[in-house]
Specification:
Elements lengths: L1 H24 L2 H15 L1 H11 L14 H27 L1
Helix pairs in contact: 1-2, 1-3, 3-4
């Protein structure tokens, strides 16, 4: 959890500093990188939630506990990344 928190904070600080430079310089390429860094930092949120749930005690419904939640979050992130890779070529083909 410590690494996820500091990863989020570090990427968020980088994003904010880049946003300032984007406003000053007007660079579109840096704007794209800023949006990319913001997306990278926001992926830490579901992972942090999954780690927090994994610490919960076993219940009647989950008799072995919630230890697989980080795996579920990682799987969900992987699926969203694959969808992100799949959609831009389709969008470009649609726009032509």
């Amino acid at each position: 959890m410590w690494a996820v928190k500091w990863s989020f904070v570090g990427l968020l600080i980088t994003t904010l500093l880049q946003a300032v430079v984007v406003v000053v310089s007007g660079s579109v390429a840096l704007l794209a990188d800023t949006i990319h860094n913001l997306g990278d930092s926001l992926t830490a949120i579901p992972l942090a939630i999954a780690f927090a749930l994994a610490r919960r005690k076993p219940s009647k419904r989950f008799s072995y506990g919630y230890g697989t939640n980080p795996l579920t979050a990682s799987f969900t992130r992987s699926v969203s990344a694959i969808c992100g890779l799949w959609s831009p070529p389709r969008l470009l083909a649609f726009l032509q």
